[in-house]
Write a structure and sequence with these properties.
single chain, 544 residues, alpha/beta, 8-stranded parallel β-sheet, 5-stranded antiparallel β-sheet, globular, binds 1-O-alpha-D-glucopyranosyl-D-fructose, Alpha,alpha-phosphotrehalase, GH13_cat_dom
Length: 544
């Protein structure tokens, strides 16, 4: 049953390049998604978030768009895309597409023009500055190196917060904003049901000054970002009933996220923030080795849960996406098959009872693990390939750098979806663009569907519960046992009802805390029974 209230919906993220290949070229495509819609219907999701399928040189797998109005031929045609929308809609599934408007590819014709001369009409579509005996400021790119790239043709630098082939757009320019709103309206008319906006809180740059750190403070949640989002809302999707938007917010704050999502401000419906996914960064450094800090993980998630609710905003809730390692390898336990299954279910239960819109990343629903590539030649991700030499330069050994990539690389979640136990996990008949995870013979969709006890059916059940029980959408959240070293626990409360969630994040049995009354109806449990003690990775939700 399709839900009518967008707040009750569950989103499934598809990274098309790794989803399902129907042409044999080793890369997934739009027709491959159509072929799997019945599977997604069985899972029960409401929306698909499709990462970018527009024309792109694919240096950053589509986050470098060279034409917003065309589909990348590697993925299919516009007719295929229309077909996908129709087939999804016929099954009650909506589609949110990804809009990347902080930057374009340097192959975009705007940039090709812009770089030609200082007086080109497209010059001010991007951010060009004179050097100061070197780059204009010391800001660092998110993908390593200085954020300014020198261009000989006009002896100036352009800003690129990501790869050198991703030039930041100049939102100060009215013409740029108009072009963007026209493009968004084009896709709304095409039949889109929602959008995910890439790094949307970086669009408003403040002063171009040197920073004591990497420069984030000058462009994160910048001075005009709320004005721009409000303007965009009014000019595009704002009056479309039930249209869902989610903004990806880099290094943002709770205060800003309340503003981005408070309905009366007319900006966005919901936000992703990443603070809870930095609990395994040593001193804030992603490329480091550190066991994750469990108590910190809870504290961050809870502060966003209660904070957003108090401010009247709305969270997107998630463990994984195409930029993150696989959650079962990160906060769960993939060391044995038994622990993998238990901990994948535990993580699902812990997340899906929180408040906000839950996101499931392709393969998460069968408990896919990290890819664990062993040699740098096997890596494909531009961020990882930029980071590797930087790590070596810092004195990190090759062996340690690979160990770090095995934990943190974005390629971990970009390996092909494991459909069955046949060659290449049933993803392609050709050579996959990136290696298939070696455990595909045991972990795959076909095997998961055949086993009523598989991780898949836990996700299916959780989606059903979200649709059925209003308390999961509207209930307030009451964190519990925050300092407990092994248990993740909270309550939801709504109209006299209470749901209690308790999960054991450890591989040991743990005493049931005295303050926890277990009377009530068990909504879900990843073990057969509930006893005096919580079993390793046990997670239970109880309704009273
Ligand atoms: O990601 C934004 C971002 O800053 C991170 O999540 C990032 O990918 C980084 O790896 C964290 O270490 C978005 C997209 O999701 C990502 O795939 C793109 O590469 C990026 O924007 C640029 O468009």
């Amino acid at each position: 049953m399709a839900v009518t209230d967008w707040k009750k919906s569950v989103v499934y993220q598809i990274y098309p390049k790794s989803f399902n290949d129907t042409t044999g070229n080793g890369q997934g495509d739009i027709n491959g998604i159509i072929d799997k819609l019945d599977y997604l219907k069985l899972l029960g999701i409401d929306y698909i978030w499709l990462t970018p399928v527009y024309r792109s040189p694919m240096n950053d797998n589509g986050y470098d768009i060279s034409d917003y109005y065309e589909i990348n031929p590697e993925f299919g045609t516009k007719a295929d895309f229309k077909h996908l929308l129709d087939e999804a809609h016929a099954r009650g599934i909506k589609i949110m597409s990804d809009i990347v408007i902080n930057h374009t590819s340097t192959h975009h014709h705007w940039f090709v023009e812009s770089r030609r001369s200082k007086d080109n009409p497209y010059r001010d579509y991007y951010i060009w500055k004179d050097g100061k005996g070197g780059p204009p400021t010391n800001w660092e790119s998110k993908f390593g190196g200085n954020a300014w790239h020198y261009d000989e043709a006009t002896d100036q630098y352009y800003l690129r917060l990501f790869d050198v082939t991703q030039a930041d757009l100049n939102w100060e320019n009215d013409a740029v904003r108009r072009e963007i709103y026209d493009m968004i309206n084009y896709w709304i008319d095409f039949g889109m049901d929602g959008f995910r906006f890439d790094v949307i809180n970086l669009i408003s740059k403040g002063a171009y000054e040197n920073s004591p750190k990497e420069g984030k403070e000058f462009y994160t949640d910048g001075p005009k970002v709320h004005d721009y989002l409000h303007e965009m809302n009014r000019a595009t999707f704002g009056n479309k009933e039930g249209f869902m938007t989610v903004g990806e917010m880099s290094s943002t704050t709770l205060e800003h996220c309340i503003k981005y999502t408070k309905p009366e401000r007319q900006e966005l419906s919901s936000v992703f923030n990443f603070h809870h996914l930095k609990v395994d960064y040593k001193d804030g450094e992603k490329w480091s080795e550190m066991p994750y800090d469990f108590i910190e993980l809870k504290k961050i998630l809870f502060s966003w849960q209660t904070g957003i609710a108090a401010g009247g905003g709305w969270n997107a809730i998630f463990w994984c996406n195409h930029d993150q390692p696989r959650v079962v390898s990160r906060f769960g336990d993939d060391s044995t098959e038994e622990n993998r299954i238990r901990s994948a279910k535990m993580l699902a239960i812990t997340l899906h009872f929180l408040q906000g819109t839950p996101y499931i990343y392709q393969g998460e629903e069968i408990g896919m693990t990290n890819l664990y590539l062993e040699d740098i030649s096997q890596y494909r991700d531009v961020e990882s390939l930029n980071a590797y030499p930087i790590m070596l330069k810092k004195g990190i050994s090759e062996a340690q750098a690979i160990r770090i990539l095995q934990q943190k690389s974005r390629d971990n979640s970009r390996s092909p979806v494991q459909w069955d136990g046949s060659l290449n996990a049933g993803f392609t008949t050709g050579t996959p663009w990136i290696d298939v995870t070696s455990n595909y013979e045991a972990i795959n969709v076909e095997a998961a569907l055949a086993d009523q006890e598989s991780v898949f059916y836990t996700y299916q059940k959780l989606i059903q519960l979200r649709h059925e029980l209003d308390i999961l959408t509207y209930g307030s959240i009451v964190p519990a046992l925050i300092e407990h070293p092994q248990l993740f626990a909270y309550r939801r409360e709504y109209e006299g009802q209470q749901v209690t969630v308790i999960a054991n994040f450890s591989n040991e049995t743990v005493e049931w805390p005295e303050s926890f009354n277990i009377a009530g109806k068990i909504l879900i449990n990843n073990y057969k029974t509930v006893g005096q003690k919580l079993q390793p990775y046990q997670a239970v939700a109880i309704l009273k």
